[in-house]
Amino acid sequence: MKVNKFYRAILILFILALNIGCDQVSKTIVRRDIPDNKVIGYLGNHFTIEKAENTGAFLSLGDTLGGPVRTILLVILPLLAILGALVYIIINTKITKYTLLGIILIIGGGVGNLYDRMIHGSVTDFMHIDFIIFQTGVFNVADMPIMAGMFIILINSYLKRKEEAAVPGAQEL
């Protein structure tokens, strides 16, 4: 089914707005209502909420950087990557719907975290999962669509390659 370019653009904007909106609303609530050093546990403390301001990137990488290096690595490069991905999905109308969805989710999560970094000087993380054999770092709502987007793209790529390998002559060198 071929989707009209206008409806495609509206769908992209809707998913982005929903993604960014949920992230920013959740972070605003946490900043406003969760005091520093308070841990709220659920499910026998396997899921906890605790406000943590992350001045770095993923898992606080780069939090000790300063000056222009910090600005380049934590603001300018992510901004360029987000803009590049946005241009890519606008121009390339032949990507699969799953790859498109994955990229939109990554862009939305990236915008949410980049906005925090630029406006607040840090990214507000607040969720932690500990199911004994599986434990996460502290993360936020924006991190979930980033991870989901990467997962969708990887699974789609794997299935597409598997499908191409099953059809003789389908793979090009």
Q: Can you characterise this structure?
A:
It is a single chain. With 173 residues, the chain is mostly helical. It has one domain (5-32, 39-163). Helices cover 59% and strands 10% of the residues. It has a 3-stranded antiparallel beta sheet with strand order 1-2-3. A hairpin with a 4-residue loop joins strand 1 and strand 2 (47-54). Helix 1 packs parallel to helix 3, helix 2 (67-91) runs antiparallel to helix 3 (97-120) and helix 3 (97-120) packs antiparallel against helix 4 (143-166).
Give a quick summary of the entry.
The chain is mainly α. The protein has helices spanning 5-33, 67-91, 97-120, 143-166; strands spanning 40-42, 47-54, 123-129.
Key features of this structure:
173 residues; mainly alpha; 3-stranded antiparallel β-sheet; 3 strands
Outline the low-pLDDT stretches: none
- Enumerate how many helices there are, as a single number: 4
Can you summarize the main beta sheet? 3 strands, antiparallel
* Strand order within the widest beta sheet: 1-2-3
Mean pLDDT: 90
Structural class comes to mainly alpha
Helix and strand arrangement:
Layout: H1 5-33, E1 40-42, E2 47-54, H2 67-91, H3 97-120, E3 123-129, H4 143-166
